[in-house]
Design a protein that fits this description.
- By secondary structure, the chain is an alpha/beta fold.
- The chain is built from 11 helices and 20 strands.
- The chain has a 10-stranded mixed β-sheet with strand order 6-5-4-3-11-1-12-15-2-16, with helices on both faces.
- Helix 6 runs parallel beside helix 7.
- Bound molecules: 2-acetamido-2-deoxy-6-O-sulfo-beta-D-galactopyranose (NG6) and calcium ion.
Length: about 525
């Protein structure tokens, strides 16, 4: 669909043109570009605008100052795969049994469901993804051929262009994918991913130890199951052989992704575009470029955050260079809460669930817990929406969730959702635009395979082992009043049995339903 057709569509539906416009803002005359800048394991307290004092994040802080900074904004789950699944499909991961995927997992998103990029396409946008995928690639039951056309993947669920690290930076294969092809692959040295023996029989499993700028990366090997393959001197989860010429360089990954984003913006500047920029920062193994090393007192975790802030600034500069900052919606957020030692000896000291503060820095701010956990720190993340043409800068305490982007953008763009589409996605457009300070009346939080909680007003109920889907052994239900106790320190379930009971009943009903909408 060309731009002319798109404008006509807007005039017909009216939903875009008729949105109320703030007094100072210029009324946008063409649909806004949308860029999601997505961090990996970036916690609420890892950003200056959210209270971090030990990590300088001037670019993200500027986004916050010029946009709407949500204080109760959530990703859908406390780990990567289900969170991203929900962001892109508007459906809770637990309904599809989605949890952290192994290196060679098939595509977890069915190719016949509505996705966020498909929605943008329906509205005439071009769509692209750059960065970390971790939603699986390939067909169920068919081993993926990494030397041929690697699919189905992003291009089969609505993206027109892609440049990706297929899984995570601590999982094989350690190569980039451009469209369906592995970048720089030498056909004489094919790439295999799979079981230990299987890949060893097929190709070479010896990889270079060091990188130009980091001689001693071997200390990055760990005892957490990350040493299946050692690549660039860094232990990884899973096995690969061959493909040596295609290996990425961990220390230039941010530069590579930023370059891809710049190119994407330049190529698509004349038509409405949706760019999903999913950084590998600050996930392990944290290997910031040498120019960022030592920028904080927090080791590579802090330095990787400084690198991510740089990436954010570069994307803003690219938009600026093409005169696009005014009418581009830039969303900044993260896929789950903070974690310190996630399997590598990189200067962080705390293991998940062991504590909150590392080197004087609390990545979840005042909130309890972090990555993997059902407490607020697991899913309450930095959440900034900037759109100068329409959104007044400020702070919003509305309860919002990334899972609601599909229904909200559908409203903004005048696309009608079908009854069976994005069933957990609710229209929160008013909250995202700053016109509603309450947001969601209730919201499910998920962590791990089984932990579930319900937010409702000032209350938070965490399901106990007795409840469907919350079978973690021995967990007792908990109830918190987040207004008086935002840090979830005082479980008051004994004092409010009726509240707990009604929330348990609603949570069960919502989990058993096809969706919350
Ligand atoms: C865990 C890994 C962790 C990280 C995580 C995925 C172990 C012991 N831990 O299984 O290091 O890779 O998976 O993180 O292997 S996420 O942000 O992509 O969900
Ligand atoms: Ca993550």
């Amino acid at each position: 669909m060309n731009r002319h057709t798109f404008s006509s569509l807007l005039l017909i539906t009216g939903s875009f043109i008729l949105s109320s416009v703030s007094a100072t803002a210029v009324e946008p005359t063409q649909p806004p570009n949308v860029v999601i800048i997505y961090g990996d394991d970036v916690g609420f307290g890892d950003v200056g605008a959210y209270g971090s004092e030990l990590i300088p994040t001037p670019n993200i802080d500027q986004l916050a100052a010029e946009g709407l900074r949500f204080t109760d904004g959530h990703c859908a789950a406390a780990t990567c795969t289900p969170s991203r699944f929900s962001l892109l499909t508007g459906v809770h991961g637990f309904r599809h049994g989605v949890s952290i995927l192994p290196p060679n997992a098939p595509l977890s998103i069915p190719t016949d469901v509505l996705t966020l990029p498909k929605l943008f396409r329906q509205a005439g946008y071009t769509t692209g993804v750059v960065g970390k995928w971790h939603l699986g690639i390939g067909q169920q039951g068919v081993p993926t051929d990494w030397n041929g056309a690697v699919k189905p993947g992003p291009l089969e669920i609505g993206f027109d262009q892609m440049f990706l690290l297929p899984s995570t930076n601590d999982r094989v294969p350690c190569v980039y994918l451009d469209g369906h092809r592995v970048v720089n692959l030498d056909p004489a040295d094919p790439l295999y991913v799979g079981g230990k023996q299987d890949v060893a029989n097929k190709g070479n499993t010896q990889y270079p130890d060091g990188q130009t700028n980091r001689e001693a990366m071997t200390y990055y090997q760990s005892s957490h199951g990350h040493n299946n393959s050692v690549i660039n001197g860094i232990g990884r989860i899973g096995y690969q052989s061959g493909g040596k010429s295609a290996l990425w360089n961990d220390e230039t990954m941010a530069d590579v992704f930023v370059e891809q984003a710049r190119n994407y913006i330049a190529e698509n500047k004349d038509k409405p575009f949706f760019l999903y920029f999913a950084s590998q920062d600050i996930h392990v193994p944290r290997a910031p470029h040498p120019r960022f090393q030592g920028k904080t007192e927090l080791g590579y975790r802090g330095d990787a955050m400084v690198q991510f802030d740089w990436s954010t600034g570069e994307i803003m500069k690219a938009l600026e260079a093409h005169g696009l900052t005014e009418n581009t919606i830039v969303i900044f957020s993260s896929d789950n809460g903070p974690v310190y030692d996630d399997g590598y000896d990189d200067g962080t000291t705390l293991k998940p669930r062991r504590g909150e503060v590392d080197h004087g820095h609390d990545g979840s701010g005042i909130y309890r817990g972090g990555k993997y956990q059902i407490y607020e720190g697991g899913t309450r993340v930095p959440f900034i929406v900037r759109w100068p043409a329409r959104i007044q800068p400020g702070t919003s305490d509305a309860l919002v969730n990334q899972i609601d982007f599909i229904a909200s953008f559908a409203d903004l763009l005048g696309v009608e959702l079908q009854d069976d589409e994005a069933l957990d996605s609710r229209n929160m457009l008013k909250a995202f635009l700053g016109d509603d300070s309450t947001g969601l009346p209730f919201m499910i939080e998920e962590a791990g395979r089984t932990e579930r909680a319900l937010r409702s007003g000032e209350w938070k109920y965490i399901a106990g082992a007795h409840q469907d889907g919350a079978k973690e052994q021995g967990r007792q239900a908990e109830l918190y009043n987040l207004k008086s106790d935002p840090g979830e320190r005082h479980n008051i379930i004994a004092q409010h049995p009726e509240k707990a009971e009604s929330m348990a009943a609603l949570l069960t009903e919502l989990m058993n339903a096809k969706g919350v909408r």
